[in-house]
Amino acid sequence: MRPSPLRIVIAEDAAIMRDGLTQTLTRRGHHVVAAVADAEALRQAVDTHLPDVAIIDVRMPPTHTDEGLRAAQAIHNDHPKVGVLVFSQYIETQSAAELFAGAPAGVGYLLKDRVADVSEFIEAISRVAHGGTVLDPEVVRQLLRASRRGDSLASLTPREREVLSLMAQGRSNTAIADMLVISPRVVEKHVASIFAKLGLAPSDNDNRRVIAALKYLEF
Amino acid sequence: MLTRSVPRRTTATPGGAYPWPVPKVYPWLRGHPTLVDGMLAVALFLASISELFLAGIAGGPNWPPGVVVGTAVFSAGLAVTVVPRRRYPEAAFAVAIALVAAQVAIGMQPNNTTPPVRALEPSAADAAILVLVYTLAAYRPRRISVTGLAVTLLAVAAAIGRWAPAYAPHPGAPLLGAVVGLGGSALIAWVLGDHIAYRRAYYASLEDRAEQAEAERDAQARVAAAAERARELQERRARAVDESAARLRRIERDLHDGAQVRLAALALALGEIKENLAAAAGRADDDGRITLLVGAAHENAKQTLAELRDLARGIHPPVLDRGLGAALSTLAEASAIPVALSVSIAQRPSLAIESIAYFCAAELLANVTKHSGARRATISVSDQGGRILITVTDDGAGGARLAPGGGLAGLLERVQTIDGHLEVDSPPGGPTIVTIELPSHA
Question: How many angstroms from the chain centroid is the CA of residue B269?
Fold first, then answer.
């Protein structure tokens, strides 16, 4: 199934990466409406084009610290319909937490390395563009490992932990079923069991479940 | 330790203390005491000889040649005793007293004539004894000089005892004159010498005090110089610490902008190729070997990216640019055990100190995770009077020690290079509390 083409803005100060991403996305049939190198140009491009999603590098000129993060938050506030996918060279849990505070619909945070797994990366862009949530597996791993809810998490079976982890990354039940090579019905059963064990209210909506899981992990 | 020769205090420049210019003869004479004493001896001798002859010319008694020769020989002997007076004062005095005693013993012929006939006339050379009493008083301990004075006075008494009958039956006036003249002279000579000795001791003590004061001044100057040097070294160290932190940030930035981004782009390209090959796998012209090779290259690129990221983060975690709080929070989140973090810093320390504080906390937390068996840990950072206080606590087994060569000792050494402190409180059974104190600026 070929997904519908997305209108995308890229903000990345390294030309080689900017061009690489543009070419890859274009080859997959998406429209890169603007590719810029700093936060200021990003804000303008988003205001002008109102894209489906903006892919934003955290470190950009002039200070190379967290311009991308601040711009993503501003865009998410000003244009809730524009998805923001922030990608970073390092996992900075605090940055991710700041980004996900409030309403994490149409928000993504990924390690830059993830571009190497091209299809998955593009799938993540698509999820964010459609109002979903994407959280880097590494962040989720850290959340699960250092959670103060260790005791109740310990009551999960290994498979349930796996499902919870994928869910926290923002995957839909269908995607989880595909990845674990099990039927969607089995995934449903696992999810129900997880929510029961952790004392969370069940929900049919994929994204709401993701948010519940992240709240539970005190993200 | 600094060794520096303390310059001896220079004596006052000649003439400095006098209102008129003193000729250079003075210091020269002071440098040649034997010559001065020799001149004194010659003067004494000439005085006594001239006395002997002048008496004859002036119509006084005409001495028989024997008396003249004897007197001259004795006078010469007495005069000569002043020459070695400074080096051998006691010996010179003893010889002079012996000569005087001989004079007194055999020098007077009491034959009721007026004036009496003297075989050996006491002469001006007898003043040598006064010079020697003075010398004893000036250069020798008082015990010796008083003995010398007593012996002299005894000799005076003996001489007067010998003379007195010659003046009978009216000895009053000459006797009194002799007692006052001879005894008084000896006393005055002693008092003068003693006074000189006292003055010399006083001057010596003054000089000592001056030298002490100078030494103190020197010591103070050295302390001040050392303090200045320490301040200079501290500044240099601060510069070095800041520079090295800045260099590490630059290296991380270069890696981020250079190698890391290129590698990410490469991984992206390889990922594309891999997926395209996989899509073409069904076709007849697919080469399975190429798919495998590209897959391996793709994996390698991803692995290298991860390694490079760890390396760069080890050099300088970029999140530190947003402050110690943000960096420690990321550190705490990544920890294998739950970490409660509290950071309350009113004023951001220098970047270098933030970096050191971060790596200290990271290492302590790694220790907790690896060795303590703790279930949770806390990190708290605060600032107090220009110092940063970092406390890492865990509920583990305790028993952590500052063993030589151990991780904690290494940490202590590192913080000591910037005048920081590290304390470990870890009783067996826990809890372990490690406290690190750092200056706000290197």
Answer: 72
Pull the structure tokens for residue B266: 């490469």
For residue B389, the model assigns a pLDDT of 95
SS3 content of chain A, % helix, strand, coil (to 5): 55, 15, 30
Distance between CA B325 and CA B343 in Å, rounded?
6
Read off the tokens for B225. 């110089």
| Residue pLDDT, tens place only, A87-143 | 998 888 878 888 988 778 899 999 999 999 999 999 999 999 999 999 999 889 888
Say whether A94 and B265 touch across the interface (CB within 8 A). no
The closest alpha carbon to A87, from A52, A50, A60, belongs to: A60
- The pLDDT score that the predictor gives to residue B166 is 61
Residues of A in contact with B309 (CB under 8 A): 89-90, 113
DSSP E strands in B260-358: the ranges are: 339-344
- Say how far apart CA B146 and CA B137 lie, in whole Å: 8
- Helix ranges restricted to H, B112-141: 127-139
The interface pTM score, or ipTM, of the predicted complex is 0.86
Nearest chain A CA: its distance from B405 CA (Å): 31
- The secondary structure of chain B in percent helix, strand, coil, rounded to multiples of 5, reads 65, 10, 25
pLDDT, tens digit (0-9, with 9 covering 90-100), for B190-226: 999 999 999 999 999 999 999 999 999 999 999 999 9
Average pLDDT score over residue span B41-59: 77
In CATH, the number for domain A7-135 is: 3.40.50.2300
Q: How many residues does chain A have?
A: 219
Give the closest residue to A144 by CA, choosing from A163, A117, A122: A163
Contact B263, B308 (CB under 8 A): yes
Cβ-contact B80, B41 below 8 angstroms: yes
Rounded distance, CA A54 to CA B60, Å? 143
Question: With an 8 Å Cβ cutoff, is A2 touching chain B?
Answer: no
Q: What is the pLDDT of residues B398-420, one digit of tens each?
A: 888 888 888 899 899 889 989 99
Q: What SS3 class is residue B26?
A: helix
Q: Where are the domains of chain A?
A: 7-135, 140-216
Q: Considering only alpha carbons, which residue of chain B is nearest residue A17?
A: B265
Q: What is the pTM of this model?
A: 0.65
Q: For residue B113, what pLDDT is reported?
A: 45
Q: Which residue of B has its CA nearest to A143?
A: B333
List the CATH code of the domain at A140-216.
1.10.10.10
Q: What are phi and psi of A83, to 5 degrees?
A: -70, 145
Q: Name residue B15's amino acid.
A: G
With contact defined as beta carbons under 8 Å apart, do B55 and B104 qualify?
A: no
Q: How far apart are CA B207 and CA B240, in angstroms?
A: 48
User: What dihedral angle (degrees, nearest 10) is formed by the CA atoms of B26, B32, B34, B40?
Assistant: -20
